Amino acid sequence: MMQRSARMKDVAMAAGVSVMTVSRAFKKDASVKQATRAAIMKAADELGYVYDSTAANLRSQKTDFVAVLIPSLNNANFADTVGGLAPILSDQGLQVLLGYTNYDIEEEERLVEQLLRRRPEAIVLTGGRHTARTRRLLQAAAIPVIETWDLPEDPVDRVVGFSNAAAMGMMVDHLVGQGHGRIAFIGGDTDGDTRGADRRRGFLSAMAAHGLDASRLIGAGRPPISMREGADAMVRLLDGYPGTEAVICISDLSAFGALTECARRGLSVPGDIVIAGFGAYEIADICVPRLTTIDPHPARIGQATAQMIIDVLTGRPAPPRIDVTPTLIVTESTAIGQG
Amino acid sequence: MMQRSARMKDVAMAAGVSVMTVSRAFKKDASVKQATRAAIMKAADELGYVYDSTAANLRSQKTDFVAVLIPSLNNANFADTVGGLAPILSDQGLQVLLGYTNYDIEEEERLVEQLLRRRPEAIVLTGGRHTARTRRLLQAAAIPVIETWDLPEDPVDRVVGFSNAAAMGMMVDHLVGQGHGRIAFIGGDTDGDTRGADRRRGFLSAMAAHGLDASRLIGAGRPPISMREGADAMVRLLDGYPGTEAVICISDLSAFGALTECARRGLSVPGDIVIAGFGAYEIADICVPRLTTIDPHPARIGQATAQMIIDVLTGRPAPPRIDVTPTLIVTESTAIGQG
DNA sequence: TTGAAAGCGCTAACAC
DNA sequence: GTGTTAGCGCTTTCAA
Description:
Radius of gyration of chain A: 25 Å
CATH topology of the largest domain in chain A: Rossmann fold
Strand content of chain A: 5-15%
Oligomer: homodimer
Low-confidence stretches of chain A: none
Number of strands of chain A: 12
CATH class of the largest domain in chain A: Alpha Beta
Largest sheet of chain A: 6 strands, parallel
CATH architecture of the largest domain in chain A: 3-Layer(aba) Sandwich
Structural class of chain A: alpha/beta
Largest interface: A-B, 51 and 51 residues
């Protein structure tokens, strides 16, 4: 039946060489004669040998993986960041070990501890808010730590992100520039999602800067805010704050939900009310009307993060902080003179 | 500056015990006196000790992780499967190591090889089609292999899935029952996504069973089919096949794209044309009109998979194949007498 | 309940 | 270009 699986020693014996030569043959840059290497690979193949990296990890004190924590698996923004990051790391022989926190910093703490036990070469976090213990664990780990999607004032180590507050300010400025004054905000009603809380803060300060009333705040639930929660929040907004001219939603998904509520009520967007989202998700570009949004360039965040990791690990100079500035995308849902 | 990080030996010395006692203290069920354990934990904390599982993995020949391969990070269906699976495995001390294949079986092969080197306790794949080498590697690995989201005729090992062809048959039957005959299909135009190809096959055979013409096939691109590709396919369908009464799309996302094209043309759904999707994504439940779809119960697939893994690893009897039957959800987009 | 010795399967370091 | 020796940091095993 199932016999003990082959190890390097077995391959070495079969190929008539030492284990060390087999070890070298399994590295790309090792100096092994072509014929020897071929014989080794043939023997390995016949024995069904699969290299055991658990042993290599221990001996070489290298694991060749990078831990990446994102809030949720099912989110195009974070998926795009991972999509930007993974191939660049992969080219350097670094594998990504992905974890997701469900937007919960306690869960993040558990994950960080679990992952650090496996000795990653570096760790990437989403957001700049963590438990005290998480910070302690990360600092003690003595590996590069990159916080992303945020610009924390007191970072653990390195940062690739943007100011969520400033991004929201861009959106408020845009709407005010279009002549709107009664602007509402639909977002999460906890601070569990720091990025969301920062966006709300950005909304408040930008409104204040324009001398506008910023009391039209609708709490839509716990992050992540779904399309459904966006729609439900819109019900409360339309019923509770008549005369609202514009709504900024915490994400395109909730903005789309808000849009569907308008459709069901026969309200025209942007004719009767203007709606804006955040994230430049695909749905913003295809729904009717298309949604004005902010593109935080998730893939760029991933690429810059990967490059930063490689630079640090290879001892190259690297800036401790990269600001990937978001872009405002103005489309149908906030266009003037339509609807 | 940064000194060599603490190991068990250091903790043992600080606590005045042997390394073996420290090792036991770090296991949950180990028999260590309460006072001893407390002293050890205190010492560990003061030294900033983080348990090194790379060493434990090697010695105990256990890694306590399960590799899970999904086609894409950014897909609510697969995210829900992982969401169903991860907590159950986690309760048993098994961590999920996630990989994504981009719907590419060559990429799957690379990933499988990489992951097997890290010696997972079990491996979960999405879909039943793999390269010959992938199959060989998996068989040689001598660990539980679970193929999901499919019911392959010749599985590598174990299966938790459903018949994508039969599911599509349910949808065709529903539309025919509503009186439609000129039914089109929008799907991927490669076989890279086996589940998609199976759905197309199911469409063809169900149409044939009803004696209907199944030539209205629109290729929408390479999987995953986006909302945009669904909209573009709808353009081709409406322009190329006048008189089409109903469209089945490969997923709710492409169905939503198709719906937006109808909205832009002023076509009523379901009045002028009927649209159905697949996957029971959130958007199907919130867009206007809501989309008739099929719920493949992604979380249940994950739960059953996790349970199967645990049963096999603990030597309990487990069926080699579980069929999680999908459910047809009929809503506004295919309702009779509306629009 | 605790400890001592041995060793998991590789690779670092050095030799030739 | 290849081999030898030692050992990574834990846990298995056996003993007390």
